[in-house]
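Researcher: Structure prediction, please.
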Amino acid sequence: MTEHVASYYAATANPHAPYPALNEDIHCDVCIVGGGFSGLSSALHLAEAGYDVVLLEAARIGWGASGRNGGQVVNSYSRDVDVIEARYGAATTAMLGGMMFEGAQIIRQRIDRYAIACDYRPGGLFAALNAKQCRHLERQQANWRRYGNDRLELLDRPGIRREIASERYIGGLLDHHGGHLHPLNLALGEAEAIRGHGGRLFEHSAAIQLDYGDPAVVRTAQGSVTAGRVIVAGNAYLGERLEPRLSRLSMPCGSQIVATEPLSADKALSLLPNNYCVEDCNYLLDYFRLTADNRLLYGGGVVYGARDPADIDSLILPKLQKTFPQLKNLRIDYRWSGNFLLTLSRMPQLGRLENNVYYLQGDSGHGVTFTHLAGRLIAELLRGDAERFDAFARLPHLPFFGGRRLRVPFTALGAAYYALRDRLGL
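Model: Predicted structure follows.
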């Protein structure tokens, strides 16, 4: 399948012409493999800096996680700075902490500069279901304030009840620097910005072979790109054939989302009066928000190993109805799944495969924001400033326990343990 999945996002995408498939041998400064946010952000930062950029996408721009996710602009990383400091030390934490809100800033700058119509709304809520999670949010607020985010509000039970019409939550943290948007329209807008800077984009042009050298050559079924530099940014949809070293370090995981029928404006705002997006604090978290046409978009859970579940409704609707029992009889108009790329450390992986071949992957659920930062970091690297890129590249990139064959059951077993702790409030 190489067309966009039948999601709410595909059904409401801005009008856009397809990009051609590569059917010739061409040359450029930088060839980027992958047309999701990692590749698009890299291409746009480099094209803005004057590089001759070619981007290859196996399916359509934004076809993978970048065009299917929950649309939440969530700051920081999948591990907070206290965990980073305990694992990697003060110097690394200072570098990474100084970048933890930059991805969201880049997104807002892109939207403004290129007038990208993607329904951006500010404000994101972290919702706590028990006292332990409330204490975690207190630490998170303190951690984030240390690195410059002073627009955070802790909410008690009455405060979170004013923001979410649900009895499930006992507290929360409101991040005014967060927000939500239509991710596929953001991706399409960024692609047009790349083309406006002279970048060349090709769809239905899977990279099937990478010949290392100086220059390197990326081959597709009907053409090739010879480039001084190559960036591999396929993430969960890269597969194992093009560069097996990358697939050994990560694991694709699936997440499922539904979108309801449109609600009346009054009904929609009765659920989320200030139209903030929400994610809870569970290990296997739920997330939800309103769309521009007043649908409730609700997602959650993880399917390890990236298989598509046979019945998305059975996975998501019990969660939705537990959160909002007042929506019990609501029609579901769209349901879909998509994969993100998980790492063992839950930290993103940036690095070098050869002197002129680089990779960006493994955002572990924080891809909307981190990919936009990663594109800036790779552009800095290619322009001669490696300091911030190397702050991530030096992090240990560890393989999953059990290798490719046993990583799924081992990880699922660990997730079940943490899910049980969530249910018990431990």
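Model: The first strand starts at residue 25 and ends at 33.
Researcher: Thanks, that helps.
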